[in-house]
Design goal:
Radius of gyration: 15 Å
Bound molecules: zinc ion
Number of strands: 4
Strand content: 15-25%
Shape: elongated
Number of domains: 1
Number of helices: 2
Largest sheet: 2 strands, antiparallel
Helix content: 25-40%
Strand order of the largest sheet: 1-3
């Protein structure tokens, strides 16, 4: 029973994980909720997705989406 609970909790957390989009450039300091955001249209590099949690460590939310 304990095991099942742990499994349910884990899948709940995974489902809640928010994916954001960032420009794969060293100078990019923003993350975006939408991959087609106007803030990302300036990106000359690849656009990559990552969990919000990871993006928040060294980036801030794009000014267009606040
Ligand atoms: Zn944006």
């Amino acid at each position: 029973m304990k095991f099942l609970y742990a499994w349910l909790l884990t899948s709940y957390v995974n489902c809640n994980q928010i994916t954001v989009y960032v420009c794969d450039s060293k100078s990019a300091t923003k993350y975006h909720y939408r991959s087609n955001c106007r803030g990302l249209s300036n990106c000359k590099h690849r656009i990559i997705s990552m969990p919000l949690e990871k993006a928040m460590k060294d980036r801030t939310l794009c000014k267009w989406e606040q």
